[in-house]
Design a protein that fits this description.
Layout (H helix, E strand, L loop, with lengths): L9 H12 L6 E6 L5 H15 L4 H9 L6 E4 L18 H10 L5 H7 L11 H12 L8 E6 L6 H12 L5 E7 L7 H4 L3 E5 L4 H12 L3 H10 L4 H9 L4 H17 L7 H12 L3 H22 L17 H4 L8 H16 L4 H15 L10
Parallel strand pairs: 1-4, 1-5, 2-3, 3-4
Helix pairs in contact: 1-2, 2-3, 6-7, 9-10, 10-11, 12-13, 12-17, 13-17, 14-16, 16-17
């Protein structure tokens, strides 16, 4: 993957190229950006630029890098046990799957990766077995006599044991060894690792860049590309899903509308609580990554309703497909008196699900709180 294939991010491309030209290459770098902003794609392009700029055979180097088969380019990423890998999962055991995934989804997220390897009902992590494997790899000399590069994708999924195992290596790596940590949420990375990395923060992609990429890469029409770019919120992975109509948003919309209708009717009607229990059981039966994705969708839905309620329709991109449901009619129930609390409760639910809390209890608790929040009157907080 080359810099020319990266969507937008011209300033970061320029910075990385100049750092190589000037020989100012930090040994540990942290690429931070929201899903779909191109952090992984940029890390691979940067690694290829580093390896091939100093190679005696640039053409061969470019070919090996394009297939992610360069012997001095290493990857670590979240994994878990599967039907084939029963215990001690590490990235090397998924190398072929990883190459295929990056080729097809260079802007993909963790959920799409876990779907790709058929374990979307589990949570992936970078554990101590992975850390030990990284240490062994990087203690060896480079095969081609140049840089050795380790790209750690979704670095925030390193557990404490793995982080501590890698700490000294990141602080004092062997000669010409480069760590590229790629993350969406740097807040989940321990401070002792963050402090040893030079951070680059990626902005979300502009609508113009996303629309241009859809036209050039996906043969989209201009009108369709502009509409999808607006809906994607700077996330090219989401834009691709919307274009190919293979996202989870239809089922998420059905779950969400069922939820808020039941929660709204539950006030003063105890029998409806049973509907919320059934709803909670349905969502809890899915994998934790699906649950987290759905809760993120709920946050987005509430935010869109809030924008519409406060008279900013130009910022509203959500288009519902459910019959007899109109966002404009729902919007008045989302306002300054309840939005912050709704956001906090959903974020708390995500946090507890991430940490293996009982999903049925978490989702039912959230549902019961929503029954009260949806009936909160805005004038209650006015002076």
């Amino acid at each position: 993957m080359t810099f020319d294939e990266i969507i937008g991010q011209a300033h970061i491309k320029s910075h990385l190229k100049k750092s190589v030209e000037n020989g100012r290459i930090p040994h540990a770098q942290l690429f931070v950006g929201k899903e779909g902003s191109g952090t992984l794609a940029m890390a691979i392009a940067y690694a290829q630029h580093l390896l091939c700029s100093f190679s005696e055979n640039p053409e061969s180097c470019q070919l090996k890098c394009s297939k992610l088969q360069h012997p001095d380019l290493h990857f670590a990423f979240p994994v878990t046990t599967t039907d084939k890998v029963k215990k001690h999962p590490i990235s090397d055991l998924f190398a072929e799957d990883w190459r295929n995934f990056v080729e097809k989804h260079p802007y993909g997220n963790l959920f799409s990766w876990l779907q790709f390897i058929g374990v979307e009902n589990k949570q992936g992590q970078i554990g101590v077995d992975e850390a030990e494997n990284i240490v062994k790899k990087l203690q060896l000399k480079s095969y081609e006599g140049g840089f050795k590069i380790m790209i750690v994708w979704m670095a925030e999924k390193m557990n404490i044991a793995a982080s501590n195992k890698l700490l000294k290596l990141i602080e004092e790596p062997p000669s010409q060894t480069i760590f590229l940590l790629v993350a969406e949420d740097e807040g989940q990375i321990i401070n002792t690792i963050k402090s040893r990395c030079q951070a680059l923060h990626f902005p979300v992609l502009s609508n113009t860049d996303i629309a241009k990429a859809l036209i050039e890469k996906e043969s989209s029409t201009e009108n369709e590309a502009e509409k999808i770019a607006h809906q994607s919120e700077g996330n090219y992975h989401k834009a691709i899903q919307l274009f190919r109509e293979d996202s989870n948003e239809d089922i998420f919309e059905d779950w969400f509308i069922t939820w808020i209708r039941s929660a709204f009717r539950a006030k003063g009607n105890a029998s409806v609580i049973q509907n919320l229990i059934v709803w909670s059981d349905t969502i809890a039966a899915t994998g934790r990554e699906t649950q987290k994705q759905f809760l993120q969708y709920c946050l987005q839905f509430f935010r869109q309703a809030l924008l519409l309620n406060y008279g900013t329709p130009d910022l509203v991109f959500l288009e519902t497909k459910t019959p007899n449901f109109e966002l404009a009619k729902f919007a008045p129930f989302v306002h300054s008196a309840n939005m912050l609390t709704i956001e906090k409760e959903i974020s708390d639910a995500q946090y507890h699900i991430e940490r293996n809390g009982n999903a049925k209890i978490i989702l039912l608790d959230l549902s019961i709180k929503l029954t009260r929040l949806l009936h909160t009157k805005e004038d209650k907080i006015n002076p």
